[in-house]
User: Fold these one by one.
Assistant:
Number 1:
Amino acid sequence: MPHVELRRVTKRYGSVTAVSDLSLSVEKGSFTALLGPSGCGKSTLLRMIAGLEEITVGDCFINGVDVTDAPPAKRRIAMVFQSYALYPHMTVRQNIAFSLSVAGAPRKTQSERALEVARILQLEPFLDRRPAELSGGQRQRVAIGRALVRKPEVFLFDEPLSNLDAKLRVQMRLELAKLHADLGTTMIYVTHDQTEAMTLADMIVVLDKGRISQVGSPLELYNAPANKFVASFIGSPSMNFIDVRIASVNGQTASVVLPGGRETMVRVGAEGAPGDSTELGVRPEHLTVVDPQDPTASFNGAVTIVERLGNSTLLYVDTPAGQLIVEGKGNLDVKSGEPVGLKVMESQVHLFGPTGSVL
Amino acid sequence: MTAAAEAGQEVAAALATRRLARLRHLDLFGLVITLTTLVFAVVWAFPLYWGLVTTFKPEYEVVRPGVQLWPEHFTLEAYVHVLMRTKIGIWYLNSLITSGAVTAIVVTMAVGAGYAISQLKFPGRRLFWWTILASFMIPIPSLTVPHFILMSQFHWINTLPGVIAPQLIAPGALSVIIYKQFFDSVPKDFREAAVIDGASEFQLLFRIYLPMNWGITTALVIITFIGAWNLFLWPFVAVNTEDKMNITVGITQVHDAFGVSYARDLAVAMLAALPVAIVYLAFQRRVTQAIMLSAGIKG
């Protein structure tokens, strides 16, 4: 039985549909990321699970119990907000123990639990400080502590790291991963940052305009995107898309004509047919720089920009297929303006049909 | 010394002279502003000083022609008369009761009403809000007669409840508006976090919203108290016996068979203003804040 389940859930705000007929199952103990661009409905989905938004149509179950109409406090969930929402007039101790205080727990219990959580999150020296006296990372941990003290069945995170600087974000990501490993509690994490999703999640749910685009593990989404949206959203730099024509189909292999006239072989499903105009997707690291005279080159082009990142090099190459981004390991000996050949790694390309679905 | 060095020195000297001239100019300007402010301050404060000094003069000095900035014969007779031969003690007590009650009721009601309009959804919420805003269009003195008729029908004329009840309207509406605006400005996340933690609406109000706005509450308490203490018209209309008067009305009772005694009248006025002056001096920052808030609303 899934731990959290949404069945055909729709959320409408007047005439605007934020989430449309969405069904999702989250396994117990998993770390599931809801990933997508701004306005895709991921926060709305999270808030519906939390009970902060009413579900227009559909049902929500947590641990088999229908919580569709249950108030947030009765759902055994805890939430960490993007802004942390730490009560500014309360100390760290009071913030952490707030839910216990509201429930009428004895002061001794509140104090003990707050201390226990503070120890886990290394917040002991800050218990008597107010949020304004804390750094961003410390506030983040207090927000997690406030969620932790409730001993929830499900943790909900709404872009908790987006207010932190890059270095702190990396550090907090590690702490969150460790927390999940230690607690084993189901976590649902909303983010627009694919790096966070890829590094933290067991399962990623990619959302686009209120619908699920694809659900899968990080590597599944990366290596086998179900559609152009997922292919372009996952991966940085993003995938190159090239307009191609299917020349012939032989079983599960198609021969496609690239701009410039050369052909390459691609695995396809049943949908592809000769003559179809489609798009070929190839990731920057699956394009290899070869000699322009190399007969096996898929394209010829000229390098316009070279970005040297130390452990890799990014090349922006103008080709008959438009500008393509190429990623090479280490420091490539290529200069701006230099003519190059690009070879496509045939086993790593994807073909997308007119609707954007993978063929 | 080389020519270049000499030229450099000349430039430096010219710059220094210009800087000094600019400073002098600024000082002069500042001096003029300060003197002007001083003049206005003296003009504004003089009546207060004059009133205070008059209370320490014997009556014959008060009515004597000419201006005497300091008593020739310093006396506390006016204060002794007011304190010993009038019911100022009862007037103070009545003022304290009515002002305290008005403040307590207004702030309590305003907190609840402001929170409800800001955070709760109920039928008629918008209409309720517009009614409160519209009440500002009605000048309170114009309601004196309707209030009198109403209090008369309640049999509350010449009673403290009769003095208190109509005073709840104006400061009440203002306080609701101020609270509503401040509660609106509390980020939604705080509410949602507390709701997830299981807080009821009462707990949300008293443990989150109100503590986050203690400054506003203090400011409103002070300004409501001062307003209620200083009110004259309604308490004057609503009571007709000395034992029910508050201090502002009691001032009108300080006279004797020989007519007006300026020193005694001013003495009772000084004593009436004293508590409010102390409150203001102690909490002037909060009072200023409250005045700015209400000016923003009314403007």
Number 2:
Amino acid sequence: MTAGAIQVVIDETRCIGSGNCLYNEPAVFDQDEDDGMAILLNEHPGPELLDTVRQAVLTCPGQAIRLIIESSDDGAD
Amino acid sequence: MPRVSPFDPPPKVLELLENQPISRVTLWNGQESWLVTGYDDVKAVLQSKAFSSDVTKPGYPKVSASLATFTEGLLNHMDPPEHDEYRRMLAPEFMVKRVERLRPEVQQIVDELIDGMIDHGAPVDLVEALAFPVPARVTCAMLGIPFEDQEFFVTCAETFLGGTASAEETKAAAQDLHRYLGELIEAKVKDPTDDVLGYMASVHVASGACSVAALITIAQLILIAGFDTTANMISLGLLTLMQHPEQLQALKDDPSLIPSAAEELLRFLTITHRGRHKAAVEDITIGGQLIRAGEGVICAQDAANRDPSAFANPNDLDVRRDARGHLAFGHGVHQCIGAALARIELQVAYETLLRRLPNLALAVPLEEIDFKHEAAVYGLRAMPVTW
């Protein structure tokens, strides 16, 4: 299976607003100015950002980020 | 478990990491606990809901007589969902971009303190002249504590975290701080200010979401957590760089390495050397080991940050490595809320000192440096320097 589109999903109920994701990949993540909670700047980042997005997932203190790597031929999303 | 090298975790802990990453240990009071040293296992414990941070839970490891005595309402000893409600109230004030706006103020504070060192002339104790005043002033400014009250807080922080105060002294310091903060918060409810306590008082105390008592406890935690940790990382981090001249030179030649150097020093030194403590509230298997409800766990992040499965050549200091996965700020919902601020303070302090005082060096032999082996947060008591 070859790697296809990358999808990032944030579970807002688990986010504690640490900003850890933004620190790891500011091109994909940001924090809401009002409440500090994580927001997605890019739901489908390119493969060149995969490593830093994965780091954001692994280090998220609330385990609030999911990374879905779709196979290129399954047609999802 | 004593250290041999002042810059490395105790050999016994590293030996456990290698041979028995989850082991049984006996504490000072005879209590038994699990000691977890592996990177993946420490992360698994810190993010699992099977573990509580509440010191009153059966099995919670009491690592010293004075610590973990007055913890009621402290966020770091509170479990979700209550913890997360407060954490979310505070989040906007600690968000990366908001804290980043403080960078010019941090720079100004560091520059003023270095001016003071230069005016005084070498030798100077870097701990007293810069390492402690930087986080003291920054934390006070961020919280909205008047500058003139700073010394009072420094004394309280020392009493709490020095590791030498009696339970009575710790209690007295807590009461003094409590009284002062209560008055300050009441004033800020009536007359809001643009700082953390002003925001919390005018928004969340005013709405009833957060009581004055709860905010007092939050402020105490932020003060104490914000002072000693950053101060020790500034001084011990510089001393560590001095022991690695080629790394130090690399930073002077290329200041763009400063952020990664700060991360690497956080990993390498992991000054919260007493670890994170938890009590299992349900049976859970960690790293193949069954941990039963009612048993205590100590997570040794200093060992985990030297785990070769997470960091190649973990016992080498390498300012060029990507150390961002380190656990020096903890992990899980209790991860340090002030991490972004600490990063700015460390980056500005390291960069400015190396730029303005490029010949900074110890004024005494390394053997004369007094390391805080017994303190809750590891570091140096004094660091006489010349330049």
Number 3:
Amino acid sequence: MNNFKPVNFGNMKPAREVAVIGIGLTKFGEHWSMGLKELAVEAGVKAVEDAGISGQDLQLVVGGNMSGGLFAGQEHGAGLLADYLGLNPIPAIRTEGACCSGGLAVRVGYLAVASGMYDFVAVGGVEKMTDVYGPQAATALSGAMDYETEAYFGATFPGIYALIAKRHMHDFGTTRRQLSLVAVKNHSNAVHNPYAQYRKKITVEDVERSAMVADPLRLLDCSPITDGAVTIIIVPADIAKKYTDTPVYFKASAQASDTLSLFSRRSITTLDATMHAVREAYRQAKVSQKQINLAEVHDCFTIAEICAYEDLGFTQKGRGGKFIEDGESEIGGKIPVNTSGGLKAKGHPVGATGVAQIAEIVAQLRGDAGKRQVKKAEIGLAHNVGGSGATVTVHILSNKR
Amino acid sequence: MKVGIAGYGAYVPRWRIKSTNIAKVWGSDPQRLKTLLEEKSVPGQDEDTATMAVEAGLRALSVAGIDPQALGAIYVGSESHPYAVKPTASIVAEALGATPELTAADLEFACKAGTAGIQMCMGLVESRRIRYGLAIGSDTAQGRPGDELEYTAAAGAGAYIIGRENIIAEIEDTYSFTTDTPDFWRREGEDFPRHGGRFTGEPAYFKHTISASNGLLKKLGRTVNDYDYFVFHQPNAKFPLTAARMLGVPNEKVMPGLLVPRIGNTYSAATLIGLARVLDSAKPGDRILATSFGSGAGSDSFSIIVTKNINKIRRGETVEEMIKHGKYLDYAEYIKFRGKIKGVTA
Amino acid sequence: MTKEFAVPFHWRRFRERYQLIGSECIHCKKSFYPIRVICPSCRRSGHMKEIKFSGSGKVYSYTIIRAPPEGFKEYAPYIIAIIELDEGAKVLSQVVDCEPKDVKIGIRVKSCFRRIRSENETGLVLYGFKFKPVLGR
């Protein structure tokens, strides 16, 4: 038996604390009239307005985008952002970590402010996925795998997560119904999220009747193809109250890596990178999973959310299925998970997702989440994964400094 | 100085289609077809001449018990090479681990390209230019939809390692009979072959098979009674048995090497797979006369005598075990497998 | 039309894909696929040498691809699996020559040389290893 070996990442601490003072999102869905630039600009403008700052105040823009090249013929996302956001000549950085590109943007933006180098940073993510046809979109997404050893032999991205699901069901008895409940919960939550792509409830029967994609994962186990963009404005914590009565503070920013291919992992039913990152995050924030009031986790596929419950420490290894079955991750449960609707129902514009998760936590901690509000929410956790787990970021935020 | 077979292997894909399923679609008389064959092998969608050649080659290496680096030559004979230009033999050499010190080339002479490779290896081995040579006949033959040949065009591979050391069967001699007789052909760029109908019989198959067999017997001063087994090229079940009758060979000496009723005509592999089945149960001292036929046309005849080393080899699957179980396809699945459907996008 | 690469992209992987060759660290004795320069366990204090795997192993997990990627349309549905080789390394490939219902976690398999796909009508034919179930003997 090959056990998880915790790693000491060093005694990292920020030179100063960082806060979020504004958020802006486009609706997630199929935006026929909007290309990469229009999506980025809409989210950027909304965020700057929400923060009550002028665009001229910004000193750095960091944007997550997985695959502008394969989806829109456009690499050099950094160039696109600075230009069309009207921000020339300030610096721009594009971050890429497959589906964790947004989480990496948050990381880089956080480090820029925490280090003391920058005071006003726009952190965003954007993905335009509907300018290519289905097969080409799948090809672009398959770059999140190990191309030469996984995609080469005919694996697809859902296929990789299906391998995780099959083994998880074999090792722990996780059931088809437990997977379905994840999709049902997230769709139910998205009904109350005005930005979500799908705002209709679905049933377990709907999930289990949907077309099989890669056994056991069906169409409704899989997050959709989505266009969308999200931006947050971050500043040093000391000046946040000048701009907003409800600043939200970063308590932790952590990241870890693991093998690119799934088969090379220590265990295919555990994302070690999640375990490493969340350990470091709990250490930085000086909390444990018990203090987390809500979480946005990476449910690219229903099985991923079940593994996340386990790997983030909300429940023991193997009991993720029971966690959802017992209603623990519902709004009103022990730790509401994916109140936004998650990647499944809110949508998954790949590069934007990691930032969208932060935006949801911020809305919740401000008390702005309407009918999906988690009562008395104080501490939230955002968990973003790239590929089948090679890159993971975990951020913890609080409305208390 | 003896030259002979140091190792042999065969490969037949698991898929089959019954000739009645083809007849149903084209309105042919299933009874008439029963005299030709029952069913034929179909290559899987991920199989081709190269993959089957590698399988057969690996089995031959295992029987011979030699390191692939000891191979000095690899020849792959086929009429369905994956590339029109770019050798199958180099792919096979790389997959078997025989590269880089060897010579290699692809051959084409309809169904006798594999046996021509054996003769080439014999030359290199006897002249001591190489220690071991590997000759493979492998085909995924195509038949035009609705044509007679669609019933018999099958898939398979046979591989023979020729050497001087530890041979399990000596090749006493070989004799070939070649003329320019276009009984069956395919032009460059065409998907399917054409054939001369009844012309493929007497002036083609029989003329060359009989002449080569008799030529070898005369050269060796022997008669058919000196031989225990006969393996002929088998385009259908009738031709080899008729050839046997014409030579005065009783059926029971031909039946062990006659596989066409169950797997169809495997083209360049046909004589080689038939021979492999005979070698699977042959005993030291058994004499085998094997005569291939390739349209165009020519026959290579071999006089083979089994040595006592045959009892020392460890075979994996025998030919009989390999072909015993098949997975049946209907005609629609068959044409999808064989890429005969127009307009399929990648 | 699927995207094609220039010849060297696939050519440099022919040997390891045709013969199932990986790396073994002399230091820690662990084996890996594909060929690696740096040992994931020992890092630079490791020493990697090539190992030709026997091709025998067992199914560690599997699934059936029903929505195939570009270039694989004609093969769907097909089985992909993570195979745990006898030497300890794991690989991913297809399981062939059997029905989906015959594949279970734990069954023994053996590698075989198969066509992976063709690069469109005019490009290279790409080959590699796949696995066949071994019937108990």
Number 4:
Amino acid sequence: MSEIAIIVENLGKRYALGQHKGGVDGMRHVLEGVIRSPGTWFRSRREAKLRQADFWALRNVSLGINQGEVVGIIGRNGAGKTTLLKLLSRITIPTEGRFRIKGRTSSLLEVGTGFHQELTGRENIFLNGAILGMAHAEIAKKFDQIVDFSEIEDFLDTPVKRYSSGMYIRLAFAVAAHLDPEVLIVDEVLAVGDAAFQKKCLGKMENLAQSGRTVLFVSHNMDAVRTLCERAILFEEGRIRADGDVESVVEEYFGRFSDGSGPRLRGAYGLAIEKVVLKNNKGQETREFCPGEDLIIEIIFDAQQCLEKPYFTLAVRGKKGNCFTANMMLDGHRPRVLNGKGLISCRFKSIPLLPQRYTVQLAIRASNGKDVLMDYVDIGSFVVKANLVDYGYKGQFQTRVSEATSVVIPYEWRLPDGTTAIVSLNAPASTI
Amino acid sequence: MTIPEIEPMELSIPVATPQSQLLIEAGRTEKQYWRDLWRYRELFFFLAWRDLLVRYKQTVVGVTWSIIRPLLTMLILTVVFGKLSKMPSGGLPYPLLVLCGMLPWNFFSTAISDSGNSLVANSSLISKIYFPRLIIGVSSVITSFVDFLISALLLAGLMFWYRFVPPISALLLPFFTLLAFIASLGVGLWIAALMVKYRDFRFIVPFIAQFGLYLSPVGFQSGVVPERFRLLYSLNPMVGIIDGFRWSLLGGQNRLYLPALTISIIEIAAVLISGLLYFRRTERTFADVI
């Protein structure tokens, strides 16, 4: 099992900023230069190459991944995660360094690339399979499984342009998942699709992992990374920042937010988040809360452009999805203007949460409610620690609490014989 | 995490091992490329199949368009060159002469415009999935080749209508077809690779197709070009090919002008080789530039 599946040595990818963007560097320019004075043109081109601001999307990256490992690749936007995947899946070539992959590799950087709108589901299965590197005979053999997984039997002969987005994604993932690769490289593809489907996909990836396949999984969803991976690698500004067991690396990821030391989290229109701090009732910075304590989320932003009336949304997610949110699009309060640095904070009063781990997500939209300034991004994580007795729990099966929901509010039982029982946080457990 | 040293020896591990190895190193990816081309060989036809399948969706007469278009062009060229300009036909029915010239020319012009556009049209594939990009360019030439075959049926029908029996030299037709294919591929690859960087070619290619129709002996025989300009005229590589088509299929007066054919072959070979080299050289950055 401990055979190496992927070795990366000193890998680097450099992009020249501003190269070939738009028509500025168009052909007219080049032709003109060549015709007017070939010598000067050649020299100036070389100088331009030297002068050009280079940008290393990835540099000095070395890592080794064993066969059968499931590794989460995390980091903020622009940290180099996608560049790494693009290099490993050979979409682009490295500027320096090298890597070696053992076994059949398939990568899924986007769901449904290569699908053709005009073709039917059936035709697209074959086309997409071929694009992903499957032989015709192989696709034919797996055809039924693919259709089964995607649940689109009735629409097999309908052009995919008439599919709902859910059907489309299901079909696309189904094809990719049945490639049966030894190494699977997956970019943030689960962000799309409904919860049931996401679960199914995660399940499929887990299956692959259990059967000894190597999986590289890029995600912004820390819950998914925690569930799926044993190991995680944190990227920051094109380099590896941390590499190790998933819990500690994810902690490091959030830690970089709260001490504000990492690079800023960039959104659209010059909006950036510099720092996110979680505090309790006493105003102490913490990542551990007791049930019934207040949760204060402080966000330090930097708006380089003046942004009027944006909507902030904060969501606290547990294992089973959103527990509660503070959503300005619903409550109608919003800052009049964001300009320069500032602080916005939100206090959730006496959080009624069960002892689990929770993630805080942030999304920001422009004043029209449509333009996304920052899409849902995990900005913090905390645990609730408590004894179940504190909640008034004394049932025989209370250890199953982790399978239950996350939020509890006080409730009162009234039994057939007329006795009542109140179950409430910090209330002495009453007997029935 | 310790990285095991990779011995230089390991670089030459053959692919035939049950578990394939992939080694990518900055600056040396060539060997892997040609292996991949073989591994993805089915994709040539899948992409061509896709383009054909898609082309006539949501049209009323469907694939009949492949017949109607060359038929109408043939009629117009026959009227303009045969009836109005009274070009010599060497005793052959003028429509036959025109269609015989149109066959390679149309193949060439659709192939260069389709394969020229092919990379840009498939940019979403290029930026998200790996496969040898050469496949995209080649498969659109294959698509145009299918059109060529349909037009060839039209020509066969026309020959039947005129009760014309092709001479024995028709056996050499595959050779000229191959020439036309290689010419289309060579120019197509050049344009496709250039188009990734310079979208100017989107406007240049229709120009080539339009002018080329009149600069090449499509509506007339190359015999009408004065003898002293003949060699100069032959610098157009399509001259040798079109003449070859006429000579092999129609025979008679359409004698083969060997200097033109030789020039064509040399030019075509040069374009193909340089096209392949240029395509390969720029291919590695397609995903970054497109």
